[in-house]
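Structure tokens
________________
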Amino acid sequence: MEKYILETKGLTKVFKEQTAVNHLDLKVEKNSVYGLLGPNGAGKSTTLKMIAGMLHKTSGDMLFDGHLWSRNDLAAIGALIETPPLYDNLSAEENLKVRTLLLGLGDERIEEVLDIVDLKDTGKKKAGQFSIGMKQRLGIAIALVNRPKLLILDEPTNGLDPEGIRDLRDLIRSFPKKGMTVILSSHILGEVAQSADHVGIIVGGELKYQEKIAENDDLESRYMTVVNGSEGWRE
């Protein structure tokens, strides 16, 4: 059985003369949470957008579940990158209805994902009236509609209060038990330490560190050491 749901080999993205991602070799194990860390502008979002099919790679390979990634694999990938793609004038159920119609799925999936993200009781309330946390959860629900094998979450705790962050952390931790792998990009080291099984650190578009998070590992010290350039890549 294939160990990794996702591998990248020499993955590179160049914008004009700027290399945003440089020969990235990620290894993301199945049914785990992989934390992707790095300073602003390090290449995290660009990497996730390539995996989610939002950007074309310049060179390198992506392997999904043991085969070369193709756009057909997007049927098994869910993503919440940057702002949740919501229609503010529609309810949570109506937003999900738009998505299920696009994917050719039945209405029963709407109730399932609303239950997963705890939005079943929002009724006819419009998404534009939702709190930031509710909008984030609805964005995750939309990403879950197609029952993805891989869920990509880019800075999902942005704007959340401590209670919202805790609830989202518990939700993310529940996904591997349901046969889903999560790639979580965040600048909040404490949240990654509590949510992730493995961590990768990108600096200047390059993967400088990749390792399983050990019990009692001081991720903040590890991160500062890697970002400041005194430790190289490990597998």
Remarks:
- The chain has a mean pLDDT of 89.
- The radius of gyration is 18 Å.
- The longest strand covers residues 4-15.
- DSSP finds seven helices and eleven strands in the chain.
